Amino acid sequence: MHRRTALSALLLAGGGAIALGLGRPWERVWSAEAARQAAFLNVCAHPDDDLYFLNPDVLQALAEGCPVTSVYLTAGEANGVNAPQDDEPDYEGYAAARQYGIRAAYAAMATGDRDAAWRREVRRLPGDVVFETATLAAKPHVTLAFLNLRAPLDAADGGSNRLAWLWTGRRDEQPYLRPTDSPLPAPGRLRRDDVLAVLASLLSTGAPTVVRTLDPAPEHLKYDADDGADYSDHQDHLYAAYFAYEAVRRHRAAGGPAVQVQSYRGYFNKYWPRNLSPAVYERKFSYLDIYGWADGHDCGVPYGCGDLQVGAGARNKRYGRSQTYRHPGGTAWLVPYAGGLSAFAVFAGTAVMWRRDAGEADWAAPVPVGGQHLVPHLDTVLTADGRLHLFGVRQELDVAGPRLVVVHGVQERPGAGFTWTDVGNPDAGGDPVRARELGMPYAVADAGGGLTLFVRDFSRGVSVRQATPGGGWGPWTGLDGGGVRDALVAVTAGARTDLYAVTDDELVCWTRESPGGRFGRRRTLLHGSMDGTLAVARTLNGQDGPVLAGQADGATLTIAQDTGASTVKANGGTGAVAGLLRDGLLRLVRRNDEGRVDVTEPHPPGEPPVWHGSGVLFTGAPAVAVDAGGTAYAAVLGVDGHLWTCRLDGSGTKLAWRAAPGPPTLSQV
Q1: Which of 120, 161, 336, 483 might form a disulfide with 503, Cβ 3.0–4.6 angstroms?
Q2: DSSP classification of residue 267
Q3: CA torsion sign, 263 to 268 to 274 to 277?
Q4: What is the rounded distance in angstroms from the CA atom of residue 608 to the CA atom of residue 147?
């Protein structure tokens, strides 16, 4: 059955509300909470991580007027030399210069004035835990927090002052320094639980709807079975991410409001395709220039007005040329259901579902449908028997690092609750570090009633696993070729399945002629600079539409059909593009350069589209679906935690976005 055709099968099976079984480990008390303003907590290892890796998302949140709190776990004092200003190490002075630079960059982003005043103070928690905060006087919803954990380059005992030893327990506590001019009373020491207590405090006071952090499982540069992997990223980045995820887990267990979590690739961005438009790129690096004190601006402090180790060379490092999510969102999370529509997302590691029944104007409040420790975003498939399948990745953290596995949530029967099982990891069973780079899953329903699952693996190739109609999974098998990015989509037509992927400079495809057959060798369909995103458009009758591949710099988009490929203007923006092909006309939906939603007017595929901006800031990728009445909808998951939808039956200048009930509150029974 076609992947999209299968989405309507539930209508014939009498699908109703998804029920939750009893006694399952993910069950909690969930209730719709009052609307909350979108707010953000950014958990970084060093001042400048957010400017390099999280921007332009931080800039977009500030432009929207959202509360933003950014916390830096280490002082980032490195060798203590704010070169070329200083010759001798001054660890406290260099840490102060970096913090001055990050305050100036945030002031410029939020107010346009890099010299805007800050209110600096000491915050105290039980157990004599202290840390510094700086609140922007003109915009008091903008706060920076500094834990100042030592991070020198020349630690005599081999780097014991790193976050790694604090996380693993190799050290019970680690020293923090007092930067020059800091309101902190003196240097001190912090334990692992002290760091988590600070993050818990910021989760409580900042009330974020989205937590942003760095990459908990960065890609390897090289690997040897005896010596292990050399990684692309700074180890402090991944341990900052561990602390962030653990803080969110504890926040959830304590009954705090559910939050979305986003992780951003770090240094390995330099090896990923460019995905920022020239205008966004220049704006992003203008704030890194402020942070790096590139213009020698006189701020009147002796230790320096920014980080001269960045200085005017921020662009030379290349890893800020893109903004790449560790767990990219696909477009297959909005589906026809029981005559209406359902949407799926992940909050605080648990899958949730919104539902709008046939004939209803409003969406029901979201309910949990299971899963534990899930990373953001889910893929959805409906099989011919009317059962809905969810695929995601579970990430469990321990002192040895993350353990990642593909998980499968399936209804026991149409309309019933979900049972979650592990599908596995193609790199499990050997060196555990190989299993950490698991990509996001993508699945299709086969014509014979089974499922085929695809994931990016450690070798940067594609691994495949098939399930029979009875539910049993066969072994993992690998496809030929490597260098693929974490964006896979498949198109079915009768018994045939075509799997698509992108590399830095190619759109590639593998074909299987029947569900029981093998995929052939990789074919190159298109050469060009890609941006690492891929999606399949929807059609009115549930068939697969054109394949949509983004190209570098957000300037163009390739539309691949059976009749050939064409390239059209993309109007900037990042992330996967959702599409709807209806009556021979294509409509596209994408995140634009402001972080909102761009929607095109209906147009023949291959002709230049007209784009219109609308909507709200959102996470993941947009989605489109058509209900049983033939009405098409676009949807995004807002940074405020609401599902936002609009009908795609009018001009792009008149789209009316409506919010579904807010995110749930999660508390233990």
Answers
A1: 483
A2: G
A3: positive
A4: 51
User: By the 8 A CB rule, do 518 and 559 touch?
Assistant: no
pLDDT in tens, 469-508: 888 999 999 999 999 999 999 999 899 999 999 999 999 9
Q: Report yes or no: 547 and 570 within 8 Å, Cβ to Cβ.
A: no
Residue that has been written with the tokens 């190989």 in this structure = 434
pLDDT (0 to 100) of residue 159: 57
Tokens of 140: 């008091």
Q: Measure the CA–CA gap between 441 and 392, rounded to whole angstroms.
A: 6
Record the pTM. 0.93
Helix spans in 261-377 (H): 278-291
- DSSP letter string, 474-489: ---EE-S-----S-EE
- Mark the ranges of the chain whose per-residue pLDDT is less than 50: 1-34, 666-669
What CA–CA distance (Å, rounded) separates 231 from 239?
13
**Number of other CB atoms surrounding residue 23 within 10 Å:** 5
**Packed helices 192-206 and 235-253: angle between N→C axes, nearest 10 degrees:** 60
- List the structure tokens of 600: 């095109």
The pLDDT tens digits of the residues spanning 590-636 come to 999 999 999 999 999 989 999 999 989 999 999 999 998 899 999 99
- Of the CA atoms within 13 Å of residue 326, those in its CB half-sphere come to 30
